[in-house]
Design a protein that fits this description.
Length: 192
């Protein structure tokens, strides 16, 4: 038998995905509907507002589902997320659930790696340069709006070092090495 879904006070003929049949909740169903079924009807702004509100849901699975969707949108274009949404994703880096913190930090760092540090020259290339020359390189290579939107990411990663669990500390070190610092093989280094 197929499970049917109650949404907006009416039964609809939408069948639930098999993964959701084991643990359906109205909030998780709404996240799925907003992201998979209704995008052709709703504006992206409505969907982003809905997902941003779900980041404060008491159910960790709902926060995780909304966060995963927002991070995937932001990885493609960080400016597609509003400043408030980006800040709320950053707040999830302080979540009580380790899995939610990890997705938030990893997603923000992925955005930062692709759109900021991936465009910068490697650290060895800036050795000996004056600070004004380095700042000019950054503003020339990275979009100012993206840089402003993602400027909170390095601070969030460093602050998350304070969580007591050891796997989190290893994850933070990995993010620093792989995402935040310009890589030796970055696109900017290859273009020069």
């Amino acid at each position: 038998t197929t499970s049917r879904l109650l949404f907006g006070g009416r039964w609809s003929g939408l069948a639930l995905p098999s993964a959701m049949q084991s643990r359906p909740s109205i909030a998780s169903l709404k996240v799925q509907i907003y992201c998979n079924i209704l995008p052709s009807i709703l504006t992206i702004g409505c969907i982003l507002d809905f997902l941003t509100k779900r980041l404060r849901d008491p159910d960790a699975d709902i926060r995780l589902a909304a966060l995963t969707r927002l991070v995937s949108l932001g990885a493609a274009n960080p400016l597609s997320l509003s400043l408030a949404t980006t800040e709320e994703v950053g707040e999830r880096a302080k979540d009580k659930k380790a899995e939610v913190r990890k997705v938030a930090l990893g997603g923000l760092c992925k955005m930062y790696a692709v759109h900021v540090s991936g465009k910068l020259p490697p650290l060895s290339a800036v050795h000996g340069k004056k600070a004004s020359g380095i700042a000019a390189d950054v503003t020339r290579l990275v979009d100012a709006d993206v840089l402003e939107r993602l400027s909170c990411v390095p601070g969030l990663v460093v602050k998350s070092w304070g969580y007591p669990d050891l796997p989190n500390k290893h994850f933070v070190v990995q993010l620093l090495q792989e995402c935040l610092l310009p890589a030796a093989g970055s696109a900017a280094a290859k273009n020069d």
